[in-house]
Amino acid sequence: MQRFRFGLVINPYAGIGGSVALKGSDGPEIRQEALARGAEQKSAKRTIAALTELNDVADRIEWFTAANDMGADVLAELGYNAQVCYQPAQQQTEANDTHAAITKLLEQGIDLLVFAGGDGTARDVYSVMGDNTTPVVGIPAGVKIHSGVYAITPTAAGRVLHQMVSGELTTLRGADVMDIDEVAFREGVVRARRFGELNVPGELEYMQAVKIGGQESDELVLVDIAADVIEGMDDDALYIMGSGSTVAVVMEELGLENTLLGVDLVSNSELVASDVTAADIEAAIHNYSSVHLVVTLIGGQGHLFGRGNQQLSPAVIRSVPRENITVVATKEKLSALNGRPLIVDTGDSELDRELAGFIAVTTGYHDKTMMTIASFN
């Protein structure tokens, strides 16, 4: 029986700034601020969700990893035996620890590298691997997930790995490693850059497409979408306005300041709070008898939740009746999905399944398009 040599590296702090509106986790100061605001580390949980998919083929995998919360703790919790190849010098790990761990794993002759993090972690992986052709599978755990090296959800990552171990996947493709400037990101500016390419399994159903760059160009369509949303707004209800340029046009038509890459709260056409955290939203919800959510999708990927809007926590989403979730997007953006469904990756697999099914997307004034939300959990 063939045995696979898999390497695992986890960025324990990936995504830690998302739920507390810090829009990233790059740098020790940001991580400390996130922890001070009560943020929780979720990388381990998301890695467990992925690797649980391998339980029935676990005897066919040899694991190599870094100590403690960089991988060994998760594998031990799952009952998978692992060889620890790297020990970080300090508790709060940094990018140099990721670099050193990957270097050690590659020295073991691994067949595939599994890593959990965001775009900053993908950059760290690429900075070590460069032209190395060893395939990689990224488990999405960060705030910024623009890189094509990540699976669309943690469970999808596990299914890709399962297919490889089972011999179902034989092809590889190049996938872009992307990242944005977090300082500019916090100022509402998306400044993306392609850093290189890594090999990923060629299963497009489970591996992420790279986000479409640039702003929406059809301004008239966006204004029509905004008019439809505003016409349907109820008095005295709370509206949670998600991130993204399409929702930004709704805020502009309301004459309100908008946090392009954050979440704002609106009631009676007035701004209640801007750039809120998950805790802020959960506290505000209790003051209203009716709560609505307006969100758009990430162009090219189709994600509604779990990419850049972690302020919309499972608790927040559960507080909004499904019929009160308004999805807005141009038909051009929907067409760019090439028939792929919308995706939810809330971190709560039960909620992801509850959200799955058909949903009407507002694509113009009194114009809606039916789309499917898929659950990969």
Description:
It contains 13 helices and 16 strands. The model is unreliable at 17-23 and 213-217 (pLDDT under 50). It is of the alpha/beta class and 377 residues long. It is 30% helix and 24% strand. Helix 5 links the parallel strand 4 (112-117) and strand 5. Helix 8 (219-231) crosses helix 9 (245-254). A nine-stranded mixed beta sheet has the order 10-9-8-11-13-15-16-14-12, with helices on both faces. It has two domains: 4-201, Rossmann fold; 219-374. The longest helix has 13 residues, at 95-107.
Helix and strand arrangement:
Blueprint: E1 4-10, H1 28-36, H2 43-51, E2 61-66, H3 72-78, E3 82-86, H4 95-107, E4 112-117, H5 119-129, E5 136-140, H6 154-165, E6 172-180, H7 182-186, E7 192-201, H8 219-231, E8 238-241, H9 245-254, E9 264-267, E10 270-273, H10 278-285, E11 291-295, E12 303-305, H11 314-318, E13 325-328, H12 331-335, E14 342-344, H13 349-355, E15 357-364, E16 367-374
Parallel strand pairs: 1-2, 1-4, 2-3, 4-5, 8-11, 11-13, 12-14, 13-15, 14-16
Antiparallel strand pairs: 6-7, 8-9, 9-10, 15-16
